[in-house]
Amino acid sequence: MQNSIREAKQALRSQVSARLKQMEPGQRAAASARARALLASQALWKTAQWVLFFAPLPEELDVWPLLTEALAAGKKVGLPRFVAEDESYEACQIQDPKSDLRVGHFGIREPASRCAPLRSTRLDLILVPGIAFDLNGSRLGRGKGYYDQLLGELRGTTCGVAFDEQIVDEIPIAPHDVRLDCILTPTRWVDPRP
Q1: In whole angstroms, how far apart are CA 90 and each of 30, 97, 166?
Q2: Residues near 115 by Cβ (< 8 Å), separated by ≥ 6?
Q3: What is the C-alpha R_g of the chain?
Q4: Residue 38 sits in a domain of what CATH number?
Q5: SS3 45
Q6: 3-class SS of residue 126
C-alpha cells in the first residue's frame, strides 16, 4: 500500500512539474500578482496578526511581496528555518527582510541564526508551498516530509499557495500527510472546511 502511494505521488510530481515548466516567466509573474491581490482581499489576511510565509522557489507562486506589506501593516512575520541537527524546520520571526535573511540549506532564503524561533506555535495564517493540491485541502510536497512535520507542530489556519496548474482532482495521501484549511490560486480562494 505505501509503495503504491509513493509511486502515485512521484508520478503526480512529474506531471505537475512538467506543467509548471511550460509556464512563461511573465505568465508566472501575472498569476502571482493576481493571487497576492486575492489573498490581500480575504478577511483572514486582513485580521491576521501572525503570518508564516515561505520563500518561494523560482517555479512556485510568489507571495513574497506581501511579506514586506505585512511588516509595514504591523503584522508579525515568520519563516521556516532548516535545523540541520535533526533535519527539520522551525518557524522563526523576522523583522527586517534585508538583514534577517540568509541563503539556507537548500538554497532557499530563511531566517538568519540570530532570528529567534517563535515562542508560540499559534499563528493566524500559515502559507504553505507544494507541488500539487486538491480542492479538499490535500497537499503533495517534495517528498521529504519536512513541511508536514512543521505543520504538525504549528496551530493556525493553513493555506496552500499554488498556480491553477498545480490543482489536481485528487492527491494520494498517507496517514502522516496534513490536510490544509484552504487553498489560494490566482483565480480562487477555496475553503474546504465543513
Answers
A1: 31, 17, 26
A2: 81, 92, 93, 94, 100
A3: 16
A4: 3.40.50.10420
A5: helix
A6: strand
At 146, list the grid cell.
519536512
Residue with cell 486575492: 38
Classify residue 31 by burial, with Cβ atoms within 10 Å: 0-12, 13-18, 19+.
buried
Range of the domain at 139: 2-190
What distance lies between CA 19 and its chain's CA centroid?
19
pLDDT tens figures, 80-121? 999 989 989 999 999 999 999 999 888 899 999 999 998 887
Cell of 38: 486575492
Q: What is the CB-side half-sphere exposure of residue 19 using CA atoms within 13 A?
A: 15
Q: Are strands 122-128 and 155-161 parallel, antiparallel or unpaired?
A: parallel
Q: How many domains does the chain have?
A: 1
| pTM of the predicted protein model | 0.94
Residue 74 has what DSSP assignment?
Answer: T
Q: What type of residue is 22?
A: Q
Query: Tell me, what's the pLDDT at 176?
Result: 79
DSSP conformation class of 167: B
